[in-house]
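Please decode residue identities from the backbone states below.
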């Protein structure tokens, strides 16, 4: 399994050129793709704040973006919450903390361009 950071998931679904070649290759090769429930929340929050424009309504976009059979939505468990809290001093954004902890607790690589996360655990991240 690999876990996608929110921007990676959005860019992958949009076939954006902002996705690095390495990231795109890892997503395409993955047999299982984890999406944190926090990424759903983040997309909804950004769309409602007008910071993200989706090509269809939010619920239709989410339904389409999660339609790949390889995707599994990963809930925030107690273990993920506690791991995220331990990362707090290194990474200030709670959403990033939880997505990172989701990868850790699922023993998965995280596909993200976030430099703070790369600095925290360079062997766990792909970009």
């Amino acid at each position: 399994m690999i876990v996608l950071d929110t921007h990676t998931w959005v860019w992958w679904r949009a076939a954006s050129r902002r996705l690095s070649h390495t990231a795109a290759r890892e997503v395409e090769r993955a047999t299982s793709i984890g999406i944190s429930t926090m990424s759903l929340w983040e997309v909804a929050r950004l769309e409602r704040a007008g910071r993200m424009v989706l090509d269809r309504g939010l619920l239709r976009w989410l339904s389409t973006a999660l339609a790949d059979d390889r995707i599994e939505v990963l809930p925030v468990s107690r273990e993920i919450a506690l791991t995220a809290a331990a990362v707090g001093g290194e990474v200030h954004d709670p959403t990033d903390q939880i997505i990172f902890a989701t990868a850790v607790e699922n023993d998965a690589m995280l596909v993200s361009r976030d430099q703070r996360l790369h600095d925290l655990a360079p062997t766990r991240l792909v970009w």
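Observation: The chain is about 50% helix and 15% strand.
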